[in-house]
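Board notes (copied after class):
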Amino acid sequence: MNEASPTTSSTPDSQIAMSRAVRFGLAAIVFGLSYPNVHCAIHIDKFQQIYADMLGNKPLPALTVFIIHYHWLFVASSIVFPVAAFLTVFVPGVTRSIYISGFLVIATFVQLFFQWHALTGPLFSIIQGMAPAQQ
């Protein structure tokens, strides 16, 4: 009736294996988010040309201007984040590397989020301007 619940003892080997799996998983998330991140960052200058051709003298949103002006920063960080995630897999300090990997996941997602909104916002306004006037 009063059976003791079986306890699972975690051995140092299983803890090491679990930490490696967590670090690998976080690095995989950073790699997955980095592909569209790098792709967007590399093509920021092409978006600038599209906006100049399609919008003429109309002002761009502040976030778009910021992304275009500092495109080199976004290209560099979109390359540095996955490289850093790869290197954290080999960092000997388990706790530190998991925190660093978690930060890289958040930083990569935030960069992708802002790049995407900055670059597609003016495109959507161009598309809305092309819609025929309703009668």
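Comment from the instructor: The helical segments are 12-42, 44-55, 62-69, 71-88, 94-130. The longest helix spans residues 94-130.
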